[in-house]
Design goal:
Blueprint lengths: L2 H6 L9 E2 L27 E2 L2 E3 L4 E3 L6 H10 L12 E7 H13 L6 H4 L9 E5 L8 E8 L2 E3 L5 E3 L9 H10 L8 E6 L2 H11 L7 H13 L1 E7 L6 H17 L13 H4 L8 E11 L3 E3 L5 E3 L4 E11 L5 E2 L8 H19 L1 H21 L2 H4 L5 H6 L10 E3 L3 E2 L6 E2 L5 E4 L1 H6 L1 E3 L2 H8 L9 E2 L1
Parallel strand pairs: 4-17, 12-20, 13-21
Antiparallel strand pairs: 2-3, 3-4, 5-7, 5-22, 6-7, 6-14, 8-9, 10-11, 10-20, 11-17, 12-15, 13-14, 15-16, 18-19
Helix pairs in contact: 5-11, 6-7, 8-11, 10-11
Length: 464
């Protein structure tokens, strides 16, 4: 899309999920202003998707005040969902060839990309990748398929299914995943937040000066000031992309749940601090949590033309690091029975339900799914098999850009027993799509699925 067309597009509201292990951000929200809402296009306000990222790149929690009013405003910015897309279905199919043509047609007409295109016909996950080589005079195609339904905007500013509350897939994220597919072979895609060595040393010095008279709130505040900002790093995808923001938001919100800065929206997931055996804490803690991929081996047909992505998609992992008197971090690798690891296991067990209540977690899974689908296409050269060129998806379409996440403000918990402190430290989100795509097994029934749902649906770019 040209810059001239972009400037005429009406603002809209898309899912802003992002992930980065924040230690839990301070709500320095005085500069926050509500986004202006009009129809068409995507909203690029700093407070969308469960996080607030200001122009300086500082990641914080968004303000709670006015959330419902903002949700209503965002909702009004959406186009009316086509009636045929409203029902929840097990499988909806999206043709990449015809999707590319739909993008080109909108741009050629000088019109904004329709919502149904921006939200990929309401797909909730990528379950299948189906390949159709050219045959009988018909051009080749690659089709994505998965559960789908109509959409709405939730309180986090994410576009989610009307009944499932799970975020729909986004065109922007698909484009980023496809373009990054080749470069993710090896390094993968990740985001992380890391405390600086200087901050660790300052915090350790401050902790030795704290007394009982300071009280836990004063002690925590002094530690936060000593730690200062932690550094955010995004690799594998553009840091300004919605895809990256999704990684940051999910990790950020995971840490908030772990440290008890807000309650979990599902039963059976107490905070890490509620389960921590404070009497057994011998040193200052830096528990590290990160989100990793959790897939079963992919299923494929004998020809490698039909693929199924299986498994929950995301799991939580953890370590408990310790800080010695010199401010040096002692890694907790190998300690499998830590309180942090137990909390991570519980979160993994509750993840699927959590994704239905907090769309940030559903969005990071969508990002993982799209990365795996893109890796399958690249690894097995399926563009060539289908003899398919998609100029919009490959190069010409311009995804929206957002404030780049750079820093997270530290927030500490000072334990009442023993005078120790707890601060969430390094972690993040990490996925290695090519490793996942390389684990596969043959399932004969997938060939029938591909044949029965051949991409012959007239000129429609989606069907069910």
């Amino acid at each position: 899309m040209t810059r001239g067309v972009e400037t005429t597009m009406r603002l809209r509201f898309a899912d802003r999920l992002a992930v980065l292990t924040a230690t839990f951000a301070v709500l320095a929200m005085s500069a926050w202003t509500a986004p202006h809402a009009e129809a068409g296009g995507l909203i690029r306000a700093p407070a969308v998707g469960g996080v607030y990222i200001d122009a300086e790149g500082v990641v914080n929690a968004p303000p709670a005040d006015g959330a419902e009013a903002l949700r209503n405003t965002w909702q009004q910015g959406l186009d009316e969902t086509p009636a045929a897309m409203e029902p929840l279905v097990d499988l909806r199919f999206v043709s990449l060839r015809k999707l590319d043509a739909a993008i080109a047609a909108a741009k050629s007409a000088g019109e904004p990309i329709p919502d149904e295109v921006r939200y990929l016909a309401g797909l909730l996950r990528v379950k299948h990748v189906l390949v159709y080589p050219p045959a009988d005079g018909r051009p080749g195609d690659i089709v994505l398929a998965g559960p789908a339904e109509g959409w709405k905007v939730d309180s986090l500013g994410n576009t989610v299914g009307v009944t499932t509350n799970r975020p729909v897939l986004m065109l922007d994220d698909l484009v980023v995943a496809l373009r990054a597919a080749e470069t993710t072979n090896g390094p993968g895609v990740s985001c992380s937040i890391d405390p600086t060595s200087e901050g660790l040393a300052r915090a350790q010095k401050v902790s030795r000066t704290l007394t009982a008279q300071d009280g836990p709130m004063t002690a925590a505040r002094r530690l936060e000031q000593a730690f200062g900002r932690q550094l955010v790093t995004v690799t594998g995808v553009p840091a300004s992309s919605h895809f990256a923001r999704s990684l940051v938001a999910a990790d950020f919100r995971m840490k908030r749940l772990a440290m008890g800065f807000e309650p979990a929206p599902v039963d059976g997931l107490p905070s890490y601090l509620e389960t921590l055996n404070t009497r057994a804490v011998k040193a200052n803690l830096l528990p590290r949590w990160w989100l990793a991929a959790d897939y079963e081996p992919l299923a494929r047909d004998a020809e490698g033309l039909a693929w199924e992505i299986r498994g929950q998609g995301v799991k939580c992992q953890a370590e408990e690091d310790f800080v010695n008197d010199a401010g040096e971090v002692k890694r907790g690798a190998g300690r499998n029975e830590t309180d942090a690891a137990k909390w991570a296991a519980t979160m993994t067990e509750r993840f699927d339900e959590l994704a239905s209540h907090d769309s940030a977690f559903g969005h990071v899974r969508n990002a993982f799914d799209l990365s795996v689908a893109a890796a399958v296409i690249a690894m097995h050269e399926l563009w060539e098999v289908a003899d398919l060129e998609t100029p919009q998806l490959s190069a010409e379409f311009s995804p929206e850009g957002y404030n780049v996440p750079k820093y997270v403000a530290t927030q500490a918990t000072f334990l009442k027993r023993g005078g120790k402190w707890v601060v969430t430290a390094s972690g993040g989100v990490q996925v290695f799509p090519w490793q996942i795509a390389d684990e596969q097994e043959e399932v004969a029934s997938l060939a029938d699925l591909r044949t029965k749902n051949a991409a012959e649906k007239a000129d429609a770019w989606w069907w069910q």
